[in-house]
Amino acid sequence: MLGDISTAINIYIITGYTDMRKSIDGLYAIILDQLKAEPDARSIYLFCGRRCDRIKVLLREPDGMVLLYKRLDVVQGKYRWPRNSNEAKNITWQQFDWLMTGLEIEQPKALKTG
């Protein structure tokens, strides 16, 4: 299925600022540079620009790469994107859910599962 992220085992968030004008090839190059590895079919890669109101998701499918783009419609809505450095960080599905709902990916008061 085109753009099905639910099959991903790994979720990598590229912290810092990404130039949102980049297309598949530019984002692919960032992954190669920061992770020192080719994007694989078991992972998704998340990118965010300076405005924090839109994200891009890159994923590999058997026959090529897919680029998903989401822009928030909410006035003043922003993703709480980690800006600490320009590196890739592996996050959990729970952290992904927090990020997509406007929360920080680190929730120190959340109950630990597992």
Q: Could you explain the architecture of this structure?
A:
This protein has 114 residues and is of the alpha+beta class. It has one domain (5-100). Helix content is 18%, strand content 27%. The protein has two helices and five strands; from the N terminus they run βαββββα. The protein has helices at 24-35, 93-100; strands spanning 10-14, 43-48, 54-61, 64-71, 88-91. A five-stranded mixed beta sheet has the order 4-3-2-1-5. It is globular, with a radius of gyration of 14 Å. The mean pLDDT is 86.
List the helices and strands and how they pair.
Elements: E1 10-14, H1 24-35, E2 43-48, E3 54-61, E4 64-71, E5 88-91, H2 93-100
Parallel strand pairs: 1-2
Antiparallel strand pairs: 1-5, 2-3, 3-4
What keyword list fits this structure?
single chain; globular; alpha+beta; 114 residues
Tell me the span between the first and last alpha carbons.
30 Å
Please give the count of helices: 2
Would you list the SSEs in sequence order as H and E? Answer: EHEEEEH
Gross morphology: globular
Largest beta-sheet characterization? 5 strands, mixed
What is the strand arrangement across the widest sheet? 4-3-2-1-5
Mean pLDDT: 86
Low-confidence stretches: none
What count of domains describes the coordinates?
Answer: 1
Number of strands: 5
Q: State Rg.
A: 14 Å
Structural classification = alpha+beta
The helix content is 10-25%
